[in-house]
């Protein structure tokens, strides 16, 4: 990036670098990373910072930062995610206790788990926060399946009988023994 005498930065790149960016763009997974590469390609193609910012609905400073990240670290530097997140409210020991509790108790919703954690550990979680913690602990939500609550044994016996007779007739027809 060169600075001319009017203090306007030159964001142009050699065609080979633009071709490499396009190749990486085609391989990339994830909208955020794709947008970062597109911003650098647009700047490198000669478009102004303000135009690129308005097209991608970004701040001018963000557009410049993306280009600087690319210059300093290449594509890997551009795509590097520096966000760390925050530390969990629960200690490792409390997480182990929660995991053990969840293995022994079935919950159909996250809200009762939030209440249990608050009652046991005095830690308040939001719904998305608890969902994230449960995923971190390798728990997944599986929608429960409906099953008949009032099964009549006599009706089931008759139904099962019809199925076996029907199956028997199908077997007979395959063997060629049915008229």
Which key phrases capture this entry?
disordered C terminus; 8 helices; 179 residues; mainly alpha; elongated; 63% helix; two-stranded antiparallel ribbon
**CA distance, first residue to last residue:** 88 Å
Number of strands: 2
Which sequence of SSEs, written as H and E, runs from N to C? Answer: EEHHHHHHHH
Q: Which parts are unreliable, with pLDDT below 50 for 5 consecutive residues or more?
A: 163-179
Shape category? elongated
Radius of gyration: 31 Å
Assembly of the depicted chains: single chain
Strand order across the largest sheet: 1-2
Q: Helices and strands: which structural class?
A: mainly alpha
Q: What portion of residues belong to β-strands?
A: under 5%
What does this structure look like?
The chain has a two-stranded antiparallel ribbon with strand order 1-2. Helix 1 runs antiparallel to helix 2 (31-44) and helix 3 (49-56) packs across helix 4 (60-79). A hairpin with a 5-residue loop joins strand 1 (2-3) and strand 2. It contains eight helices and two strands. It has helices at 15-27, 31-44, 49-56, 60-79, 92-104, 110-121, 127-136, 153-175; strands at residues 2-3, 9-10. Helix content is 63%, strand content 2%. Among the domains are: 8-79; 92-136. Residues 163-179 have low confidence and may be disordered. By secondary structure, the chain is an all-alpha fold.
């Amino acid at each position: 990036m060169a600075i001319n005498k009017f203090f306007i930065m030159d964001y142009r790149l050699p065609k080979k670098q633009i071709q490499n960016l396009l190749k990486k763009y085609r391989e990339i997974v994830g909208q955020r990373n794709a947008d970062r590469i597109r911003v650098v390609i647009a700047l490198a193609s000669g478009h102004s910072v303000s135009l690129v910012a308005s097209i991608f609905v970004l701040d001018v400073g963000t557009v410049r930062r993306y280009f600087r990240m690319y210059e300093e670290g290449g594509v890997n530097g551009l795509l590097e995610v520096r966000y760390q997140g925050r530390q969990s409210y629960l200690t490792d020991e409390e997480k182990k206790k929660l995991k053990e509790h969840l293995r022994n108790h079935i919950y159909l919703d996250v809200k009762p788990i939030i209440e249990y954690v608050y009652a046991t550990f005095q830690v308040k979680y939001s719904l998305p926060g608890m969902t994230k913690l449960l995923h971190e602990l390798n728990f997944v939500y599986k929608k429960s399946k409906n099953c008949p609550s009032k099964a009549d044994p006599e009706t089931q016996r008759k139904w099962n009988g019809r199925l076996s007779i029907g199956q028997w007739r199908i077997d007979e027809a395959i063997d060629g023994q049915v008229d």
